[in-house]
Write a structure and sequence with these properties.
Layout lengths: L12 E2 L2 E2 L6 H5 L15 H6 L13 H8 L18 H23 L1 H10 L2 H21 L12 H4 L16 H16 L6 H10 L3 H18 L8 H14 L4 H8 L3 H7 L1
Antiparallel strand pairs: 1-2
Helix pairs in contact: 4-6, 6-8
């Protein structure tokens, strides 16, 4: 996640400087009074804060109500909640839902790639495979239509000249999207994917593939290990003997010093893990 200077700031931390007042020269010049912003890109925190770097995350085993209650709690960064779904106004709900649509569309497009189709065909039962792609064909067009473009700051002066050219979202210009068609597409997505009374193959397969973040975490560690095996020994391959020696040395250290280290720095194990 890319963090921009000024994101997740409180009254005590601003412009990347601890103890700052949040009144940088540019912000003062633009008439900004320097109050802490209530909405601080919280939609970006949900995927990364839910991820467990060592395996499956707890949210995968929790009931929806418990997940929701924890989503609404304040973050140490200063963000009001873990997701803009937790805001009171509908515009913020729409922003959060738009992020969902963006990632949902990317996921469906990945399933339609040749490598995605081959993998799914090998792993899924024929009936499940057919139902998954049938559901994708039903909702994909509606998801594309519902997806709103990214909000852009109003440009003025010479900045207008270098601003990016607006691109149609979902193949349809924003100005041509009618409220009636938006309602129709939203109804399709709601009935196919969000109504918990109805089964959804997309919902099922997505949850299975993610495994509470485990598939990404293990895949990242696997990829890193393969890169190490090829280039980790002075730019060359790592031998079996080197790996065997490394494993034995790690086992020889055991857990000695771990608790002492925590006591010295005054941190809990969870805090130390987060810092890794």
């Amino acid at each position: 996640m890319a963090v921009v200077s000024g994101d997740f700031l409180t009254e005590d931390v601003a412009d990347g400087i601890p103890g700052g007042k949040g009144k940088g020269k540019k912000r003062l010049h633009e008439g900004d009074k320097g109050e802490p912003r209530p909405y601080l890109r919280v939609y970006e925190t949900m995927p990364c804060t839910w991820l467990n770097a060592y395996g499956q995350a707890q949210f995968n085993q929790m009931k929806d109500k418990a997940v929701w209650e924890n989503m609404g709690k304040k973050l140490k960064s200063g963000a009001l909640w873990n997701s803009e779904y937790c805001a009171a106004d509908k515009e913020r709900h729409g922003t959060a839902f738009n992020r969902f649509l963006q990632t949902l569309l990317a996921w469906m497009m990945y399933q339609e790639e040749e490598k995605g189709k081959i993998s799914n065909q090998a792993l899924l039962a024929p009936n499940m495979h057919q139902l998954l792609y049938k559901e994708i064909s039903v909702v994909k067009e509606s998801v594309e239509y519902l997806l709103a473009p990214r909000k852009e700051k109003v440009k003025s002066g010479t900045s207008v000249l270098r601003a990016g050219v607006p691109t149609p979202c979902g193949g349809v210009s924003l100005s041509l999207k009618s409220p009636e068609e938006l309602d129709r597409c939203c109804k399709i997505v709601y009935e196919q994917l969000l109504d918990m009374r109805k089964p959804s193959k997309i919902r099922l397969i997505m949850a299975w593939q993610s495994a509470g973040g485990l598939s990404f975490v293990s895949g990242a560690h696997y990829r890193g290990t393969m890169c190490f095996m090829q280039y980790g020994c002075e730019g060359g391959p790592v031998s079996l003997e080197h790996l065997q020696e490394a494993v034995k040395q790690r086992h020889a250290t055991g857990t000695d010093g771990t608790e002492q280290d925590y006591a010295q720095v005054g941190q809990s194990q969870a805090e130390v893990d987060l810092a890794v």
